[in-house]
Amino acid sequence: MIGHLECNITPAISGDRATLVMWYKAAQTIPFYAFDARDIREGSHRSSNSSFDGRANFFPNRTPAMLEILHTKPTDSGIYRCRVDFHKSPTRHSRVQLTVIVPPEKLLIVDEKGSHIRHYILGPYNEGATINITCISTGGRPLPKVQWWYDNKVINNTSVVLSDKRVRNTLVLHRLERKHLKSVFTCQAANNNVTNPISASITLDMNRK
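and the corresponding structure tokens:
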């Protein structure tokens, strides 16, 4: 994924221009990236931080100007500061927050005994039985929302955080009926609207009288 950090380099004084743009992360005093337009027509780009080496690129001709960070990772998250020096206008400082989202990694569906559901077929159960199915999501930053779906509708969206890496949602089905035979219940976990949610489904089996 690509991180986008905007910076206003438009001068306050008409006819002025930006001469130097420097990017800092958090409270660092040494810029990790600089764009110098003082002596070269198209400007020169310098990256001085090994953690961003080759991944940061500044685009001064966009509106607004923008720093792109390629292949973002969790450690890139944080507050960034953009300093812009002008030929005549006062120096401008601006801050921008970058949040790197890590999608959830995997799902595990277990029955009421906490056992993994083999071949994703649950049962068989008798009519009238009450059962519960638990879906556990692992990974993701921020933690995902875990939902149960049935017949293209959300039927349970109550997530419980177990730890800083695990979230669960338990679906309770009361008084099973014949119509539930071969029903498919799908668990989904998502923490953003950019990547597709991860999902896992189970099929409910019932005893035939």
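(Above: one complete record from the training split.) Residues 81 and 201 are 45 Å apart (CA to CA).
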